[in-house]
Amino acid sequence: MRTGSPAAPIPEPTRPRRLVPGDRVAVVAPSGPVPEDRLKAGLDVLRGWNLDPIVAPHVLTGHGRLTYLAASDRQRADDLERAWCDPSVAAVFCARGGFGAHRMVDLLDWGALRAAGPKVFVGYSDITALHEAFAVRLGLATLHGPMPATADFLDTARARDHLRATLFAPESTRTITGLPGVAPLVPGRARGVTLGGCLALLAADLATPTGRPSAHGGLLCIEDTGEEPYRLDRILTQLLRSGWLDGVAGVLLGSWAECGPYEEVRAVLADRLGPLGVPVVEQFGFGHCTGALTVPLGVRAELDADAGELRLLEPALT
User: Fold this and answer.
1) Which long-range contacts does 238-242 make (Cβ < 8 Å, 24+ apart)?
2) pLDDT at residue 284, rounded to an integer
3) Mind telling me the catalytic residues?
């Protein structure tokens, strides 16, 4: 581990208010293209929760030349900014992940977003770039959870129900128990402010204007998809060599879909994270997996790796 001046502990971010029936919510597409049929189905679910969803103008536009983007960088940034700055909108849901959030994040007017005040923000995968930006630039707690145009949101009641409970009755989800298979990779307990998301995105954020300087004092929640074990090794090694992991309080490991045989993935995680000497829990059940849990980011919590539980010291939303 690197040595040097210790980083300042992660400050406690602002928590937005919980949702109530009748709230207007916006759906945006900061990253990849959105299947129209899945979007419509997801909107129906939100309406079934007695929410009033509106779709940002460019969610279904497409880019043209770069087919892996939902629209141009400017259009995607404008959609997110307008939704956030609309005083009638209580929450912003990302339709899906994919790739592209990094391309548009620096086009956002952070002064305008700050002036608009705190709102609920939901997403995962590539949306990690925005979770980090909201934490760094706005000091805002966010929700790492399933998105309306994704298969897990549409097809898995467990994922939907946990997100819905977190949104409407956050006191009921203050204890988050890992899914079947959860186990301590390194036993113990730790307290800190939750942070994290997709591992590759966290590494890509290093030295960027919206990148967090350190995970010092945090409970790091990480997962990924489609990264072979040697690539996970490379990413973790980069975070270790940069000092970004110095002083991390504990680690929660989510899903590793399409990353190779889990025993090979586990060996990498144990090799790179074990020497940190902090509690590490594996297979907690968030990210790119079936029935994914919603994990609040930017909330003070206690990790009990032996019990496979994350206990929030306050509700995710006020």
Assistant:
1) 238/203, 238/206, 239/202, 239/203, 239/206, 240/1, 240/2, 240/272, 241/2, 242/2, 242/206
2) 98
3) 125, 223, 288
